[in-house]
Design a protein that fits this description.
Blueprint: E1 2-10, E2 13-18, E3 24-27, E4 41-47, E5 50-55, H1 57-60, E6 72-78, E7 81-87, E8 89-99, H2 109-114, E9 115-121, E10 124-129, H3 137-142
Parallel strand pairs: 2-10, 5-7
Antiparallel strand pairs: 1-2, 1-8, 3-6, 4-5, 6-7, 8-9, 9-10
């Protein structure tokens, strides 16, 4: 099945995000830390007269924190809340066919938990992910 995907880069990997998950793509300004939150919550930021929770995507994957310089984000909505998922780079939006993951494909457990399949981008496989899957359900309900 062919769908529209946003190609982004974070945690050292190029990924494809289904356009249905993407509300917008923005540059994040000042992030205000919030005490006593999960380590993957970088803080809160103001965005077009609303507050968004800023997520450090590598930490959400169980990887070391990002560089702290990421300012681009993909905005997603979950249960009425807005989240800014930090990315290192945004490359393109294009239609791709989603292919299932091959048996025996070696993916770290964190990546496997959000993997939806692969898209073929100029003869290079790109992991299609469930970006919302980076938010534990308890966090999405509490934020």
């Amino acid at each position: 099945m062919t769908g529209l995907y946003l190609i982004a880069r974070f945690a050292g990997r190029t990924v494809a995000i289904a356009s249905e998950q993407v509300d917008s793509v923005v540059d994040i300004g000042k992030v205000t830390p919030v005490p006593r939150t999960s380590p993957f919550v970088r803080g809160l930021a103001a965005l077009r007269s609303r507050v968004v929770t800023v997520i450090d995507t590598p930490v959400a994957l169980g990887l070391p924190p990002g560089s702290g310089t990421a300012r681009r984000a993909v905005i997603v909505h979950v249960d009425g809340h807005s989240y800014a998922m930090l990315v290192d780079a945004l490359e393109d939006v294009a239609p791709f066919a989603l292919h299932p993951l091959a048996n025996g494909l070696a993916l770290a457990p964190a990546w496997r938990s959000i993997a939806l399949g692969l898209v073929d981008r100029d003869c290079e496989p790109v992991l299609a992910i469930d970006l919302v899957g980076l938010l534990p359900s308890s966090t999405a309900a509490a934020a």
